[in-house]
């Protein structure tokens, strides 16, 4: 019953938020429900560690180590987003009182859709049905499209159009991959369902090689598009930049991680049988790191820089998975957790800068904010250092895991490129911190009128920063779940 409760609570919350009118009641209903959801996810993770995988609904749901740790990450980020939103939504739009009022009227829809999105993400990681995995991923796209376009201006609508179009086209390839796997496995399973991933694993070795490789490549294209791997990444910058900060944090923190669950499920099943697939994923990761890093280096707009840096970081997950084996999967899941916390924090800090300055997004128009936004500046620096892999933050242990996984299979060239691009990441992230918070403020910014963001926004940032530091200092706390996830 616990997996059903974890999945059902956000759905019920979405309905309650839709019909609740008083804004304070609705806001704290969302925060309270998210806290309960996080507690249920933590309880579920503990049960999986102590008792093993938890099936539900006749095997249609299966919460193993990978599902448990991802459900915990989703629930934690959702809770942080709800806390941040208590003061942030609908955002700051100076000299546009009419637009501010219109967006305030749309906030109940935003909150309800956000909870619905959380439910679809949990469905993705907990389902044991290969086709419903695809359906759930498509549901996340539909649920999040209106959140991306919340501001309903020209740039937001363009971002939403790209988001829907490119992800729908990409995820269609994954549907054909699912169909191929089902068709190839069904004759070998008799009366057992060929839709269940747990059943597919048992006959993976009997699927013809050509069909297995083709299906896996199609699934990689579909899931890779949703994740934002290069060259399937053109939607990322617009969607991340034009969304409200809480949606940007959720996109970068968990939405783009969830497709990797699908990739891991497929790679654990077929990767050991077809080593050439590991090579493809390994070099796709290298390509993604280089493309994302170079694009991030060229950006002036704060959130677009964070968007392209996210693309680069997804490449490290692909490299870890491409090494194959236990260590690679362990490193990949640890990196997803670390990056989820780090990127969620960085988008929170970027949103706080935009909020405090009344909508300024260009780094060349910012400066001198360290004294005026001390909590935001400290959290931004911590996130920047973590993203670059500097101790004692979670990014350090996560990147060490990827390096060890690459070294274990002798992938020295990808390893060298990954390390070099980490230095590039450090350069542009420290440059961002210097430009936004340390250098003298431009005269047009009127920095003396800027004050620190409200308490709930600071609390959400500090929550993610603390979690990021805890994972960096005591990664062994996650070892039982990561060990199960790597062996799922």
Strand content: under 5%
Question: How far is the N terminus from the C terminus?
Answer: 21 Å
Give the low-pLDDT segments. none
Q: What would you call the quaternary organization?
A: single chain
Helix content: over 70%
Q: Determine the mean pLDDT.
A: 93
What is the approximate shape? Answer: globular
Order of helices and strands: HHEEHHHHHHHHHHHHHHHHH
Q: Give the beta-strand count.
A: 2
Which strand order do you get reading across the main beta sheet? 1-2
Counting helices, strands and paired strands, the structural category is: mainly alpha
Largest sheet: 2 strands, antiparallel
Number of helix segments?
Answer: 19
How many separate domains make up the residues? 3
Give the C-alpha Rg: 21 Å
Tell me what the structure shows.
The chain has three domains: 1-126; 128-272, no CATH class; 274-488, no CATH class. Helix content is 76%, strand content 1%. It contains 19 helices and two strands. The mean pLDDT is 93.
